[in-house]
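Final report, closing paragraph on structural work. Over the funding period we assembled a curated collection of sequence-structure pairs, and we close with a single example.
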Amino acid sequence: MNFTLRPTTIEDLNMVSQLLQRAFQVGPDAPFLDPSIMKWKYWDRRDDWEGPRSYVLEKDGVIVAHSGIMPLTFGAGKVRGIQMIDWASAREYPGSGFILLREFDAMFDFIYSIGGSEITRKILPAYGFVSYARQWKGARPLRPFQQILKHQYRNWKLLPRLVRNFFWALPKAQEGCLHEGWKSEEISPEKVSSEFYIQDPADACFSPHPPSYFEYLLRCPVMRIRLYGIQNMRGPQGHFAIGVLRGQARVAGVWLREPDRDSWQAAFSLAQQTALQIEDACEVVITGTEGFCEQAAVCSGLRIIRYTPVYLLNKKGKLTLSQNYQFQLSDDDSLFLDSGNSSFLT
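Its predicted structure, as stored:
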């Protein structure tokens, strides 16, 4: 059975949407299938990545499988990898999604996957993916009374949840003194220093993104994302990005000049303070990888809600990540994924 792999164009939008509707058993009004979101994910300009960001597999001119990609490059583009998103295949062509994965394996230096469906978690190890790390997801309520009015769960737990979140949201005495002299302010993408994106993977502690990536991210149609610079008495120390979706403030990532435990804790505290200044933010969510970064998150007032496995396919052996590499929200589509309802974790 002969298949043809090709990049998609914006003219494929309706056919790709129809395939995803059938594969995920959703209607055309599913939020992730909104045309503005699909155009942004797959075809909007990204000056940090010249290649396609969406591919289909065809049989006799019919689309039988699709995957979008989130590119990740190291060493000024010398090591190129992807995370697959919106990966789906037609039920009439079993195995076509696997063929698409095999094609990507040949095209790129590595493929990583954060979580995924139960089926995905079974397929990946069978193909050669290894469980590389665990991503933690931490959260904290910011405005408990507003949150409870929007909460997705309306049951007897609502009042106990409100009481718990009220005390959880209160600032702790130690939070104001552990990062004296640290502050954040909104910046434009061109303020991002080159030291954060021209890195060897063995030295990088987070995804190395240039200013053009943040220009793309800030055009996200799902929510308004803002970029903030981090400073202390010694000058600029990094940056973080944050956006709010249905009352949940999602920290896309934190990039630090000196990613030690104290710096992580200060940055996480600043991100929470910044989220609280955004009027419609009722809860803040941050992710990272197990280790001292996680410990700093807990010390900053976050609670770890869940852990998600990170799978890695690195058959070519070109990727060597540092021990403290952080997989953050912007490393997959969970940053901008919209279920259509509130998705509070607290």
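The domain at 4-108 is CATH 3.40.630.30 (Aminopeptidase). Residues 261-276 form the longest helix (16 residues). We thank the funder for supporting this effort.
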